[in-house]
Amino acid sequence: MSAVEQPGDHSQVERATSALADVDTSGWTQRFDLLSDPHRLEILLSLHRAPGICVSDLAAALGRSENAVSQALRVLRQQGWVSSTRVGRAVSYRLDDEVVHDLLHWIGARHG
């Protein structure tokens, strides 16, 4: 017997193979990787409920340091999930990715 079994149902193999072409597996893996961090997920949930929140208020809401929140926001901003707006010295953040927005609803997030 060879190391690789020969397929029994070629049409099933073709359908299974075509499923891989239909989905951006690399992109989804990256999304799930970012969502797998509980701190980033909490930030996303907070931004979903309180769009336009500033770092200090977000840090207070999450019970984390502003530095830790800023670092997580930087990662999310680099991925295009979050956008920022500066008004004077204050910077506010909001969710900026529709797919992530939909995923948050899927896991039970609601608007305020």
UniProtKB/TrEMBL annotation:
GO terms for molecular function: DNA binding; DNA-binding transcription factor activity. Signal peptide: none annotated. Keywords: DNA-binding, Transcription, Transcription regulation. The keyword Cytoplasm does not apply. SUPFAM superfamilies: Winged helix' DNA-binding domain. PROSITE patterns: HTH_ARSR_2 (PS50987). Residues 20-112 form the HTH arsR-type domain. InterPro entries: ArsR-like_HTH, HTH_ArsR_DNA-bd_dom, HTH_MetalResp_TranReg, WH-like_DNA-bd_sf, WH_DNA-bd_sf. The keyword DNA-binding applies. NCBIfam families: HTH_metalloreg (NF033788). This is Transcriptional regulator. It comes from Mycolicibacterium monacense (Mycobacterium monacense). The lineage of its organism: Bacteria, Bacillati, Actinomycetota, Actinomycetes, Mycobacteriales.
